[in-house]
Design a protein that fits this description.
The protein is an alpha/beta fold. About 30% of the residues lie in helices and about 25% in strands. It contains 20 helices and 29 strands. The strands form 9 sheets. A 7-stranded mixed β-sheet has the order 5-4-17-16-18-19-20, sandwiched between helices. The protein has a 5-stranded parallel β-sheet with strand order 7-6-8-11-12, sandwiched between helices. It has a 4-stranded antiparallel β-sheet with strand order 21-22-23-24. Strand 9 and strand 10 form a beta hairpin. The two termini are about 35 Å apart. The structure holds 5'-O-[(S)-butoxy(hydroxy)phosphoryl]adenosine.
């Protein structure tokens, strides 16, 4: 069967786009490739405010990069202050909707005022440049306010997704050595209160380094306030002024740390700095989302993940657009909540994930059909490869057949979008993230680092440093080098496999390491396994990802219990809940399979490849000669799926 024809950009769209043709894209790409420093330097000057210009555009001592060396700038200034002398002063910066239906529209001027006031609160508590904060909040306006206030003073923040457990929160507080935790009494999710303060209390009980906890009021549930340590957000605000100049920060000042899963049990603290991150968050808004002054932009992610950092808060505010923020669950109170929001605020650009799209497909197209979605002009996808069937549905029922879809590939580590169509230029092939953005030296290579020919498969890598790249892992340079820069020397090893087709389009195939992608969220097998073996009944555990129609992958845990423990449903449920406590509810295994032994190599390494084959095909092919005890496989393969 011949491959379907790529979807060309609609004519009207191309005419008004930031990049309006493939020729224009190729020209930009070549320009950047020939002299990346000149390319990025010119844009940084043109697009951002600098208090002091830099002396050197790039300092690259692989794998350590510094961008705009010696320059000083401030993210909060670039997101807010500089818009206040323009027509954007009273433009909506944030349109917020709570799950119960309450709403708020915050102009740039008002947001600036709130950020300055809260920055003064932080200052008054003794926090300053170099301090670290943990932000554990629901999706309410106070969350971006807290981030921008930290950025204003040079306090490095780490936002922890509200679905994480007390245990996960605690390890992050300790790893970052944070002295302040900013949280809320609770948040709304599916009509219920998520008790964030109670969870924070549990975490803080074992974090003596936390001197202050600031609590915003959202759900008005009963909470405990520890005298001297816990403070009410509004009470603190009442005591300070709303004048607070942005601190001049070095371009390489750490803006934030965001924890993500890797191949060991310990999460990695991805460190992003200021100047370079600002630049690429800004440029990707213009190139990929083709932002126009009159646009209303909605990235429907959670700010707890990098997508929300770059495309709900920093990117949109840098370019002065209106960013929509929604607190709650997508199908609450009814499956049309998203479409209702788009209709109500006349959203022009929607950015969401394949897993969300698949869930909407299940709920049926009668829900989007109830609403006028004609304001939409562009759609985006992120988190995992989008399957062509989901692409078609998204294109037809949400985009009305008229909106290009940008399938954006990137990672927590890359800080901003790396591979994506440009909506006015790139002919789209559903399922392909297409081509790298200008200045991003993506390649597909074999293990020796040689580019694979068109039509070939290999490892996805980035050959040259880029401004928004992560600089290191918080407190762990050695792991930074080893995980990302040693597989193929001098080249950034992404951890994904990819194919380049005969036209040069890139198709990302998925992870090549022991990292799973569940609903667009990264989970590591090792992290889940160490959580499971911490349970008193468990002797050993091996976790794998199984293909799943809705969530992309689902967690399956093979568990060996200690002698005398019962392998029944009650135990399986107890273990599932245990993972909820150790990591967060979203990480609970879909399936627990009890086994008296796990397949291992003679050197004792668990052969997860075999387990994967067992759950997908119920048998094992391929090489098992390194297996220590062959009978294990027969016993495992004989088991029936429990669900
Ligand atoms: C991993 C990064 C950065 C946004 C959210 C996830 C997978 C992400 C795509 C895409 C195919 C994708 C990759 C990547 N991924 N976007 N458009 N097509 N795969 O961030 O948790 O850091 O995960 O998500 O496997 O390595 P993350």
């Amino acid at each position: 069967m011949p491959a379907p024809k790529p979807h060309k950009p609609p004519k009207g769209f191309a005419k008004n786009a930031t990049v309006g043709s493939m020729a224009a894209y190729e020209k930009l790409y070549e320009q950047a490739d020939r002299n990346p420093e000149a390319f990025w330097g010119k844009l940084a000057k043109q697009e951002l405010h600098w208090f002091k210009p830099w002396k050197k555009t790039l300092d690259w001592k692989a794998p350590f990069a510094k961008w705009f060396v010696g320059g000083t700038t401030n993210m909060s200034y670039n997101c807010l202050d500089r818009h206040l002398t323009t027509a954007r002063k009273n433009k909506a910066a944030i349109i917020w909707e709570g799950e119960p239906g309450d709403t708020e529209t915050i102009t740039y001027q008002e947001l600036h005022r709130r950020v300055c006031r809260f920055a003064n609160v932080l200052k008054k508590l003794g926090l300053r440049k170099g301090s670290r904060s943990i932000i554990y909040m629901p999706m309410i306006p106070e969350l971006p306010v807290a981030m921008l206030a930290c950025a204003r003073l040079g306090i490095t923040h780490s936002v922890v997704f509200g679905g994480f457990s007390a245990e996960a929160l605690k390890t992050r507080i300790i790893d970052l050595d944070a002295t302040v935790v900013i949280t809320a009494d609770g948040g709304w999710r599916r009509g219920k209160i998520v008790p964030l303060k109670a969870t924070t209390d549990e975490a803080m009980a074992e974090c003596p380094g936390v001197k202050h906890c600031i609590v915003a009021r959202r759900t008005n549930n009963d909470i405990k306030m520890k005298k001297g340590r816990d403070h009410d957000w509004s009470a603190l605000e009442a005591e300070v002024s709303d004048v607070c100049p942005a601190v001049e920060l070095d371009s390489e000042h750490p803006l934030y740390v965001l924890y993500t899963s890797g191949t060991t049990g310990k999460p990695k603290g991805i460190v992003h700095t200021t100047g370079g991150y600002q630049l690429q968050a800004n440029m990707s808004m213009k190139w990929v989302f083709d932002i126009k002054e009159e646009d209303t932009f909605w990235c429907a992610a959670d700010i707890g993940w990098v997508t929300g950092h770059s495309y709900i808060v920093y990117g949109p505010l840098l370019v002065g657009t209106t960013t929509v923020m929604y607190e709650g669950a997508p199908a609450h109170p009814e499956p049309d909540r998203f479409w209702r929001i788009i209709d109500k605020y006349k959203v022009n650009i929607l950015y969401t994930s394949p897993t969300a799209i698949r869930a909407f497909i299940r709920m049926g197209e009668q829900w989007p059909k109830k609403h006028d979605l004609s304001s939409l002009r562009l759609l985006g996808s992120v988190g995992e490869p989008i399957n062509p069937a989901a692409w078609d549905w998204y294109h037809e029922f949400i985009g009305g057949g008229r909106c290009p879809i940008v399938d954006t590939w990137w990672q927590t580590e890359t800080g901003s979008i790396m591979i994506s169509p440009l909506p006015g230029a790139t002919p789209l092939k559903p399922g392909s993230a297409t081509f790298p953005l200008p200045g991003v030296a993506v390649d597909v290579v074999d293990m020796a680092g040689n580019s694979v020919p068109k039509g070939g498969e290999g490892y996805l890598v980035i050959r040259k440093p880029w401004p928004s790249m992560f600089r290191t892992l918080w407190g762990d340079k050695a792991r930074f080098k080893k995980t990302y820069w040693s597989q193929i020397p001098g080249v950034y090893f992404v951890g994904d496999a990819a194919r380049r087709d005969k036209d040069g389009y890139i198709w990302v195939l998925g992870r090549v390491d022991d990292v799973m992608n569940v609903s667009g969220h990264r989970l590591s097998t090792a992290e889940l396994e160490s959580a499971l073996v911490k349970h008193k009944a468990v002797a050993e555990a091996a976790v794998i990802g199984k293909p799943h129609e809705l969530t992309g992958q689902a967690v399956v845990a093979f568990v060996t219990l200690k002698q005398g423990q019962k392998t029944d449903d009650a135990m399986a449920n107890a273990l599932r809940d245990w993972v909820g406590v150790e990591i967060g509810k979203f990480a609970r295994p879909e399936q627990i399979r009890f086994t008296d032994a796990l397949p291992k190599t003679r050197s004792g390494k668990i052969m997860r490849r075999l387990l994967r084959e067992i759950v997908t095909s119920d048998k094992v092919s391929g090489d098992i000669t390194t297996l220590e005890d062959l009978s294990v496989i027969n016993r495992l393969a004989g088991q029936q799926d429990e669900e």
